[in-house]
């Protein structure tokens, strides 16, 4: 969270900020809740900006197939509909 906060504080205040976090469900949910309470939103992003599964079976592969809009983060602005 602190590294993300440093990056956000270093960004221009008049520009949108994208936060990409690869973490487990508990960590990613906690970080997302933290930032939402501070005014960040996932507006316009499918799945409230989260990808992956919330419930895993032991034998399930853990690899993610990123949606096209995350394969090149320059495509995030404007936010995809």
Descriptive overview:
- This protein has 81 residues and is mainly alpha-helical.
- Helices cover 31% and strands 0% of the residues.
- The chain is built from 3 helices and no strands.
- The chain has helices at 2-10, 25-36, 68-71.
- It starts with a helix and ends in a 10-residue tail after the last helix.
Inertia-based shape: globular
Total number of helical segments? Answer: 3
Give the SSE order as H and E letters. HHH
Low-pLDDT stretches: none
Mean pLDDT: 79
Overview features:
81 residues, mainly alpha, 0% strand
How is this fold's topology laid out?
Blueprint: H1 2-10, H2 25-36, H3 68-71
Describe what is shown at a glance:
This protein has 81 residues and is mostly helical. The chain has helices at 2-10, 25-36, 68-71.
């Amino acid at each position: 969270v602190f590294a993300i906060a440093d990056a956000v504080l270093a960004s221009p205040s008049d520009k949108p900020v994208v936060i990409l976090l690869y973490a487990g469900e508990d960590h990613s949910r906690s970080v997302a809740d933290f930032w939402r309470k501070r005014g960040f939103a996932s507006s316009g992003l499918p799945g409230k900006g989260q990808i992956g599964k919330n419930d895993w079976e032991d034998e399930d592969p853990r690899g993610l197939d990123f949606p096209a809009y995350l394969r090149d983060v320059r495509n995030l602005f404007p936010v995809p509909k």
